[in-house]
Amino acid sequence: MTALVLRSFGRAKILTASLAVVLIALQLAIIAAARSFSDGNVFERASQIAPAFLLQIMGPALASFSGFVMFAYVDPLIVMLVVVFAIYLATEPAGEIESNLVDLVLARPVARHVVVSRSFLVMALGTLLMSGSMQATTWAGLWWMAPPDAQWPVPRTVVSLSVHVTLVAWCFGCIALAASGWARRRGAVIGAIGVVAIATYLVEVLEPMWAPARQVAWISPFHYYRAGRIIAGTAEDARNLAVLGTTALTAMVIAYWRYQRRDL
Description:
Layout: H1 2-11, H2 13-37, H3 42-49, H4 52-58, H5 65-69, H6 76-90, H7 92-98, H8 102-107, H9 112-145, H10 155-179, H11 186-206, H12 211-216, H13 227-232, H14 237-261
Helix pairs in contact: 1-9, 2-9, 6-9, 6-10, 6-11, 9-10, 9-14, 10-11, 10-14
């Protein structure tokens, strides 16, 4: 198992390092911007002129220095980067079938469930590395650039945001891993689950404004990541984390079942 995990990380090391550097740079840039904005009344003006749907999603992140520091955990582009990274790592079984490497992997005395466990561990550890990099950069950047009189974010809130982002990524990663049990092309799975991720995020964005979206919003993992409410301290963290964790676990069970039965 260890050899398989290390081999998988070795194949994705350039992508992993590049994405980590991008996230670290973005977090430092956000803290630098927050310091610049704190010199004037930018936060107050932003909360007044921002569109209603934007305030619904990330309002508290636009209202203060401490809130803006957590903007990386709210910004859809950054969250989607982590989600797509998890999808990519989780689809390795489909990639091995596409390139015929599965024959070499299973030529050794390796049970099929080990291949699924390997891919889950790589996906889980990879996304933890991304969220951990953002966490470490948040506190290092505050120590380096925060104004002396600025109020820092509450550690519990930052940790909660990071955990939610990680579990949302795990949900889509596990769904992609399950879909790989039927697919023979890695790109097809990445594309399909990536489109699903974007669609479910759009449903969550439209939910406050469009009645049909409210009827189906509960199926979106993003529905259980209310970043604005987490920052404001009004989110139902236990319920939301339980739903995200159960969704990821269910997809994992399907992945084990399907990979065990498929014709390779």
